[in-house]
Structure formats: structure tokens, C-alpha cells
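ok here's Polysaccharide deacetylase:
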Amino acid sequence: MMDPSYLTYPNRKQGQDHRLYDWRLSRDRKPIQWDNGSKLALSFVVPLEFFSLNPSGVPFKHPGAMATPYPDLRHYTVRDYGNRVGVYRILEALGKTRAGFAVNAMVAQRYSPLMDYLKSHEIIAHGISTDHIHHEGLSEAEEDVLIQQTLEALPSVSGWMSPARNQSSRTLERLGKAGLDYCLDWENENVPVATTGVTLVPNNYELSDFTLLHTRRQTEESWKRQILEAVDFLASEHDRFGGQSLCVTLTPYIIGQPFRIAMLTALLSDLRARGDVTILTPGEVASQFKAQQ
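and the structure:
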């Protein structure tokens, strides 16, 4: 039976349950214009994650965490394969196309040769590891420590994505105070949203390779088709609402597998052939959005 305390939420009130940004209709916001007049700004984010062989599970296990009793070498080595092999296939497929790489601090500390390969891309802080979840049970000081330890390993970054994309009610405020500019945890819009802390760059969970290929066990062809259908639909909304945005996750241990990587190459080819889509990093999306506010 569910604990009754789960139904107690002190911030519940009429309208929105927060004061991070104002409620407004899509038709009432200022239209965004992307570089080159593109109708859609598409971004890729590649999470580089460190998975513990024996995760604490506090306050929950990361969705990609170990699934069987210790030592779960099968799942651990597949995820490690992503950081050792799969990510390099993604980099080769991307070519000169820049992406955002969301890096755990423990990956930055352990995989220095990999970090050298990412110098032409955008680095995004991704917490300490998949076993360091941000949640309401942390004090403000404890959350500040997690953020600062992450930034010590990843200096000069401007973006953030929380481990498991989980936050406390204070996370955005703490990120802003730490000097970060944008966050990839939320997916509440098809365009960036300005908050009292940082800019929210929507990051689509439904179209991620983890969701469609791993969780829902769909085919690689279906994954590609659904992304292109989303691109078509969002581009069609440009005339009514202005420039739209879409951020798609590429997980190294999933799309970086040898039987899947060809579908990423095909997707990129289709996107590059379009004249109405520009591929930007998440930080570039945030910067262009902020410049127009």
C-alpha cells in the first residue's frame, strides 16, 4: 500500500505548482528565429555515464542501473562497452556535426583519452555518477556539494543534466547559483523556457534510443521513422508558432551497438539533406533563445 505521505504536497495550489516560469499559451509567446531561417533546431545529447557495480539505490536505482544481484557483470560490462566502444562509433557517425555530451564527473576522471576526443563537441555536466541522484531528501548544502564536485571535474561547462534527469525542488535555483546557464532535465515544451534559475532546453524522453529500443523494444527502423515524423510535424508548426526545437538522446551502449549504428548514420543523412532543419548543440539552442528574449 502506498504511504499516505506521498499524497501530501505543500506546494499544491490552483494553476501551476511552482513559480519557476509563468504559464502562457503557445500563441502568446514571442516566436523564435533560428540561424539560417530554419524551422527546427535539432540537438543530440550523448550521456556518458558511470554505473556502479553495486548501486545504493538511494532514493531509487537509475533506470540503466544493475538489474540482477551483485556482481551484475552482464549489465555492467554492456554499459562499460558504451564508453569504450559505442561512443566512438557515434563520434564517427556525427563527423563534423557537433553534439552535446553529458558527462558524469566519474567518467571525466576515469576516461581521460575519451575526453580528448570530445574537444570539438559541447560538454554538459551530468552529475557525479548514476548513483548520485538529486532528490528532495537532500539538504540544500548536500545538493550544492554534488553540483560543486561535478563542476570541479568538468570546469568551464555551461549546461547541466541531472543523473536520471531527477531533481529536487531546489535544483534549478542551485544550478543558477553555481553559474550554469541551461538544463536538460525537463521536456515541458517544444521550445526553450526561461526560468528564475536557468534556461530549460526540452529534452525528449519519448524519442530517446533508451526508451524506444531498450525499454519498448521497438526496431531501429521505427526509432528513425518516429524521429523524422516528429521533425516533420514540428517543422509544420513553424508558421503558427515560430521556430521549434527537438533534443534527441543517443546512448552509447544502445545506438552504439554494431547492429544499430548504421541507423544513426542514415538518420543523420536524412536530416542533413533537409533545408528546414539546423543541427545545434543544446548550448547553442539556449544561447540563440536567450538572445531573443
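+1. The domain at 26-291 is CATH 3.20.20.370 (TIM Barrel).
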